[in-house]
Amino acid sequence: MIFSTDYVKAQLIHRDLLQKASVNLNQLIIPQSRFKPFPQTPGGWKKVLPDSVIKKIIAKGEAALGKEFKNIPATVMLEFVRTGNRTNYESMCFTKRNQLWDLIMAEALEGRGRFADKIINGIWSISEESFWGISAHLTAQKAGAGLPDVEDPIVDLFAAETSTILAWADYLLGPQLDKVSKLVRPRIHYEIDRRVLKPMRTKKFDWMGGGNTEAKLNNWAPWITSNYIATVLLMEGDAATRREDIGRSLKILDQYMDGLGVDGGCDEGPSYWEAAGGCVYDALNLLYDATDGKLNIYNEPFVKQMATYIYKTHIADNYFVNVADAHPRLNLNSIMVYRFGKDVQSTPMAEFGSWVFHNFKETEEEKQFRRTRSLYDLLAIKACAASVAKENPLNDAWFSDVQLMLSRSENGLFVATHGGTNGESHNHNDVGDFMVYADGYPVIIDVGSGVYTARTFSKDRYTLWFNTSPYHNLPTINGQEQAAGLKFAANDVRYQADNKSSSLVMNIAKSYPGESDLKAWYRSVKMNKNQGIEIDDQYQTNILPKSLTQSFMTICDIDLSTPGKIVFSLPNQRNVYLNYDVMKWNISKERIELTTPEDQGFKSTWDGKTIWRLLLTSKLLKKEDSTRYYIYR
């Protein structure tokens, strides 16, 4: 089969699935008094949860009892504008909310009142905060970054997360809170109304397109909207307002989904899928329950495409194809993946979710957001644990809109490559990049993203080495690296696959600025199923280039002693080889020194291994030439 595609600039495909499925929304939404998606008594939870899970949740609550809810000093928030550090504020903010959630769930499952006072302390402490979001997101307020303007409330990811925590506290523990004080729940309602509900009705935030219904939205839209829907369903008592709020939410979710291509792929990469397509699923869960199952789009082919992206981009172990700011290794929410697979009737995805559940322990970091999802997961623990668990790796996959190909050989090699554009969300200026794994281990890598600081999403984004093409597996021409923006894209993209091979051919010349003097640069990445991987580059320049280099990034031990051959050593004592034309290239290597605050995340990302950059430098500069790199076992 052969596919040819060029990137379409940010055009929406108006499916409007949710709006079409809810033309009679007034009749679909059930009264607030009937919205009971989860047990509200310990006895109810005992019917659906194993005793071992109940004991674990209560133990976490007991651990939280001994901790104080710390106030966050204004100077910690100011660190973002003073030093660029956002981590210190986020650590304090997230820790407080994690602590409160552990207490809420422990009391919900035990019901003896021993956690109630501490819960109220947490609710009161969070209610007294000037801002529920994080310091890095204050750029959205009129006053800009620094300290929050309490008269200009903005709804960011974590303001929405916070409102959901307090809303579920009200739902799960209403009588217990009232028993301590009749003023706690009114305070919850008041704070949620002024910080989240009213701003959502009156403001057109950038994350929802800023009023532009043709804007392509990123993960913020479903992430915030899923929390907003939960808050509305639990907190808004007026039926007419509730319907208006849900109607607004459907439009935002549709606009996000309409911005995805027919392949349902996430251009932000697999590690953002949980906050993107996964959050669409969180919203669909709520909408299903809020309409007695009448608002249901799980049978739509597009929703299935969006869902199954996650298991299709799995490499091995907990490695996934990491494009853009995605991390190479994920601790997936296994039960959510299992549930989503079941709902869209994808047996391979459901089995994959169960496989992750049985083989990997979910970290506490992964559990600290998306509380509504965690409640739905609790209801499915028994089913996931008892279901068939299979990894289900794909031999080949092609996502036409994000122009991503992946392929496996018969001897343990894996390759992924992509075209696309440098205007994608969380972009890395990496059109034409590729990665290679062998026996599930990274050989030629996309290093991923570093620690987020003030520079990450600013004018200085592309001063960070890991966001630039010279530190991906790409050429640099006349000293010119790829540029950022939608117009810097691959064209003449052709994918072909059969039983013997799969390949992606693309012209990446337009991803470089004019100073590169490129007429064309065709890159072909081909997997021969029973042999190896061929990387073929053919280029033409307008004038004789002054310099030409090719980078390869790796964490493997490497041997360059044989001219024309790079030897990558794997932990299993096997080798992978890359042949290059020694008549055309000089080779050198450089160790990437991790010195900046942004660099520190790579130490954990790659388990403390040295990141190497291999640099081929052209000996024979020509206006027109071709070269091949051959990767094999």
In short:
The chain contains 18 helices and 22 strands. With 633 residues, it is α+β, with helices and mostly antiparallel strands.
Write up what this structure looks like.
This protein is of the alpha+beta class and about 625 residues long. It folds into three domains: about 10-30 and about 250-395, no CATH class; about 35-205, no CATH class; about 405-630, Beta-galactosidase, Chain A, domain 5, CATH 2.70.98.70. Helices cover about 35% and strands about 20% of the residues. The protein contains 18 helices and 22 strands. The chain has helices at about 15-20, 25-30, 40-50, 50-65, 75-80, 85-110, 115-125, 155-180, 185-200, 220-235, 240-260, 270-275, 275-290, 300-310, 335-345, 345-360, 370-385, 600-605; strands at about 1-5, 315, 320, 395-400, 405-410, 415-420, 420, 435-440, 440-445, 475, 485-490, 490-495, 500-505, 520-530, 535-540, 550-555, 555-560, 565-570, 575-580, 585-590, 610-620, 625-630. The strands form five sheets. It has a nine-stranded antiparallel β-sheet with strand order 1-12-13-14-15-22-19-18-17, with no helix packed on it. Strands 4-5-6-8-9 form a five-stranded antiparallel β-sheet, with no helix packed on it. Strand 4 and strand 5 form a beta hairpin. Helix 7 (about 115-125) crosses helix 8 and helix 8 (about 155-180) runs parallel beside helix 10 (about 220-235). The chain is globular, with a radius of gyration of 26 Å. The two termini are about 25 Å apart.
